[in-house]
Design goal:
Two copies of one chain form a homodimer. Chain A is of the alpha+beta class. Chain A has a single domain (8-134), classed as HIT-like (HIT family, subunit A), CATH 3.30.428. Chain A is built from three helices and five strands, in the order H-E-E-E-H-E-E-H. Chain A has helices spanning 8-13, 53-74, 120-134, and strands at 14-19, 23-28, 35-40, 78-83, 93-98. In chain A, helix 2 (53-74) packs across helix 3 (120-134).
C-alpha cells in the first residue's frame, strides 16, 4: 500500500495550519478570501464516495468542525464547501468564508481572476486566528 | 416548528427525481452537464455544519450514494460536489458529472454562461437513467 504524500501543487499553493485525525488543514495562498482546504491523508483518494464509510463520516465531521470555526471566527455571511478536483486530483475539500462585499460575490471563487498571495505578517495572523478558533476542538492538533 | 418547503427558485430551476430518507433529489434544468442537487428536508437549514450530527452523517451518506450512481451511470471523469448557497440560501448540495470535453472544463459550472434547458424527451431520459441507477439503493424511492 502506498503512503500518503501531499500533492506538489497543493503543497506549493497552501500553508499547513494543523492536523485533524484524518485530514491535514491548509490555508490557500490567496488573500482575497479566507480559503481553507482539508486534505484526507489517504493514499490515492480522489472522490469522497470512493473512501470507506468511516472515512466519509470522518471527512464530513472534520469539514463541519472547520466550517463552524471559520464562520464564528470571520462572522461571515456564508460558508462555501466543495470537493472539485478537476485539476489537482488528490482529494481535497474546500471550505471558504464568503461575504456580500467580497471579490466575485455571489459567484464562486474557483477559476476566478488571479490569486493574491499573502504577505508574511498577514499569513501568520490568519493562520494563528484559525489555530485559535480550532484550539477548543479535541480532534485538532498543531 | 416550521414545515420544510422547497425554495421557489430551486423548484423553478429543477425537476424532482425522487426521495432519500432526508433529502429530495432533483435534476437542474441545464443540459450542459448532468447536474443533480440534494435538498435536505429540514426547515430553515442553510449550512451543513448547523444541522445535527445525525443529519450531517445522513447528508454525507446520501450525497455519496448519489455521486457513486452518477459516476457509474455517466462513466464520467470527475464528480464535483458542493454546498454554496450564496444566492439561494436554502441548504442544497450540488453533485455534478464532469468530463474533460465538457463546457468550461476544468473550471466550475457555477456562474458560467447561460443554462440550456432540457427538451422534454431528453429530460425524461436523464431522469429515468438516474432513477434506474439508484433503484438498487434501499434508501432511495420515487
Amino acid at each position: 500500500m502506498n503512503k500518503f504524500q501531499l500533492d506538489s501543487r497543493l503543497a506549493a499553493d497552501s500553508f499547513l495550519i494543523g492536523h485533524f485525525e484524518l485530514c491535514e488543514l491548509r490555508l490557500i495562498n490567496d488573500s482575497r478570501w479566507p480559503w481553507l482546504v482539508l486534505v484526507p491523508k489517504i493514499a490515492g483518494a480522489e472522490e469522497i464516495h470512493e473512501t470507506s464509510p468511516d472515512q466519509q463520516a470522518q471527512i464530513a465531521n472534520e469539514t463541519a468542525i472547520t466550517a463552524k470555526a471559520l464562520k464564528q471566527m470571520m462572522g461571515c455571511e456564508k460558508i462555501n464547501s466543495a470537493a472539485i478536483g478537476n485539476i489537482v486530483r488528490q482529494l481535497h475539500i474546500h471550505v471558504i468564508a464568503r461575504n456580500e462585499n467580497d471579490t466575485n460575490w455571489p459567484g464562486p471563487v474557483w477559476g476566478f481572476g488571479k490569486s493574491q498571495p499573502y504577505d508574511n505578517d498577514k499569513k501568520a495572523l490568519v493562520i494563528n486566528q484559525i489555530q485559535k478558533a480550532l484550539s477548543a476542538s479535541p480532534q485538532f492538533s498543531l
